[in-house]
Amino acid sequence: MASNAALDIRIPSDVSRIEGIVAQVVHRCREHRFAGRQLTLNVPVALTEALSNAILRGNGEDPSRQVRVRADVSELRLVLEVEDEGDGFDLDACTKDPSDPGNLEREDGRGLYLMRSLMDRVERYRGDGNVVRLVLHRR
Amino acid sequence: MSLQVTKHADVVVIEVDGQLIVGNRQELKQKVLDEAEAGARKVLIDFAKAGYIDSSGLGVLVSLARRLRELGGDLRLANLNDDLQTLFELTKLDSLFQISDTRERALESF
Lengths: 139, 110
What we know:
The complex is a heterodimer of chains A (139) and B (110).
Chain A: E1 7-12, H1 18-31, H2 36-58, E2 66-73, E3 77-84, H3 91-94, H4 101-104, H5 111-118, E4 121-126, E5 130-137
Antiparallel strand pairs in A: 1-2, 2-3, 3-5, 4-5
Chain B: E1 2-8, E2 11-20, H1 25-37, E3 42-53, H2 55-70, E4 74-78, H3 82-90, E5 99-100, H4 103-109
Parallel strand pairs in B: 2-3, 3-4, 4-5
Antiparallel strand pairs in B: 1-2
């Protein structure tokens, strides 16, 4: 039977923790019968981007700072909230368009664009910390 | 993620098994740079056994392609599954890399 309890965990600012969190969220989405490509593409890539942004940029990989991850999965949708201890950023201003020729050969700068392409909604707001909220409707 | 390196004539083939993401991208980068340092100029990354790739993984591929071009070589890709193909199309990187649907076709393309 699918678990309806929301996942709510805190991890240190360590990118090696990302895969484990992603696996837990994908597992819950699979229990709720999300579509195959959502399980192999949308959820893992978008969540990895959100977590790596929080760890590397928000918290500056400072081991004393934590990232809080909340995942609420239902038959209708996945709601993810990734919270870091940084100052936050302007989502629109920081999203780079990969179709701009000047961006094509950049090594960085695709994360926010991918997150917004792969999720139905992406928002940033100020909670206790800086929160990025991702919503994906089950298909 | 694990990497398996084989050589086919003058082409170094690196097969990626698992996720290529922020936590392990440096392993692939170092492996290719080591091969380039040893003289390799034609490198093929085979994604037949790969899972998902994040923007850091894509960034490493861009960086390595640029480095090999600077050395007069080339980095090419093979066996992208539908998810990976979508990622390359979304980010327009399908226009930057020569991508083959099989390893054999990729090897013939060099």
